[in-house]
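thread: overnight batch results

M.L. [08:02]
morning all. the overnight job finished for the chain we discussed friday. pasting input first so we're all looking at the same thing
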Amino acid sequence: WDFDTTDAAQWDSNLFDFVDGKTTLKGVTTGASIVQLSAGLYHTFALMSDGTVKGVGENVMGQLGDGTTTNRSSWVTSNITGVAQLSSGVYHTMALMNDGTVKGVSYNNKGQLGIGNTANQPSVWVTSNITGVVSQITCGPYNTFALMSDGTVQAAGQGGYGALGTGNTSNRSSWTTSNITGVSHLSAYNFHTMALMNDGTVKGTGYNTSGQLGDGTQTSRTSWVTSNITGVARLSAGAGFFMSSMIDGTVKGVGINTNGELGGGTAGGLSSSWTTSNITGVVSQIVCGRYNT
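M.L. [08:03]
and the structure it wrote out:
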């Protein structure tokens, strides 16, 4: 889960302070401010304005990239600089660098670091084997997607149910081309992935038993299908559902609604069609947790 400080994200007061209009980390005396947050299952990263990275939380698999496997209750400096963007899976994190390369750290059981094998890389950031100009990096729990500058997509890691959009269900330890072009933004969760297209339409691939791909069916897909929604500004994925903030400021959701995560006023059931969420005001950003929004 990723947050950009230019958007209307809510910071946890136990972790952050606002000082002179900037977001700073408690206990960290640095002139740099936070430009992005990215959280895995039990760990959190903060990308600083100077391109350095701070981490906190669970570190038993070296997911904080500080050269140790010691859990941290206070922020520590990760051994990486020159970072432009971060994205975290359950235990792994990927960094898009200012020079256009990609680095990754920690868990690699499905090949999600894109280094050509499934060996874990605890504590140390390693260079991922991707070529071309990457404009966005997006992690699912056990896979990684690279949106390229030409609107194509490269994928690595867990491919179950067709989550990588390659036409099959194979895991990939090396970057492989996903069968889609014209993409402006990606959002992924476990076995299902959504792509916001340049024209405001949406396509999805992977697990669909809760109707989360929004194509009106509950049929899982190994290749990208068009979702029945247009006019989308931003997408966010949860466990079995997707939420979209619309260009007109409204919000829509699709998929499982066990806990009321679609915000429609009821809990239970599912929807394979996009439904309008009952929120008032103009929404500028939508962020999904596992079972909430």
